[in-house]
Design a protein that fits this description.
Blueprint (H helix, E strand, L loop, with lengths): L2 H6 L11 E4 L2 E4 H23 L6 H24 L24 H19 L3 H26 L6 E2 L5 E2 L16 E2 L2 H23 L5 H18 L16 H23 L24
Antiparallel strand pairs: 1-2, 3-5, 4-5
Helix pairs in contact: 2-3, 2-5, 3-4, 5-6, 5-7, 6-7, 7-8
Amino acid sequence: MSLEALQLLPLSIPSPSQGVWHLGPVPIRAYALCIIAGVVAAIWLGDRRWVARGGRQGQVGDVALWAVPAGVIGARIYHVATDHELYFGPGRDPWGALEIWNGGLGIWGAISGGFLGAWLYCRRQGILVRPFADALAPGLLLAQAIGRLGNYFNQELYGRPTTLPWGLEIDPVNWPSGASFAEGTTFHPTFLYELLWNLAGVVLIVALDRRYRLGRGRVFALYVMVYTAGRGWIETLRIDTIELDDVLGLRWGVWMSIVLFVAAAAYLVVVGRRHRGEDAREASPYRDGAPDRSHAPS
């Protein structure tokens, strides 16, 4: 490629011109499509891994009927709690807290709510939670990678200004409230950083699981470590304001990442020592040693 051709290449990433399309009176939102695509991908990968661990085919989809709604509710509650100034106070519309289609989901709330929903289903069906979490872990990271594209279409959760050639163009109407930047300012595409980090994490986790036959919750712990390591760094780049954006000099998300990373690492060490010399995985992913066939496909 010639120097002249290189000079014609754009030195920034343009943001989408729109994130909503209309099919008659029905709005089709890119944000929602990305979330749905992520859920489908997680179910597909999780089901393959669950069957490989001795689980019943299709059961991951059954769990998703509980976990996904609980995760969405948890994600929205977390977002509203940490960004309540967007919805409550002078000149704000409290009903906006319910408009989930406009974006605004907190990953920590999604994980907590989703885990609760999955745990309730697993208890009802006699499924051991740890092997199920191990089977689903890479799929969760894959879903999070795909879901970040929704932030791209919404022009949200970007980083601070940058002159790097992959800087992200953001419409001034989507700049932080009260912020003022020079015309042509581009920003760190933190959605892209997290997307790539998560995809690399999926490959790493699957490879390590195949190599060492990890079990007893250790794949899920590894997922937490991989995700929080990247998320903690990415949080330091973001400029969107939240209620707890300065806790002892760090954003709340950074502290969450640090605490969860340490907890997951400690779990890996403790479980590894406790089950040293034993089979790395559970003999069966069910409490009674056999899958519940009452809802199995004929």
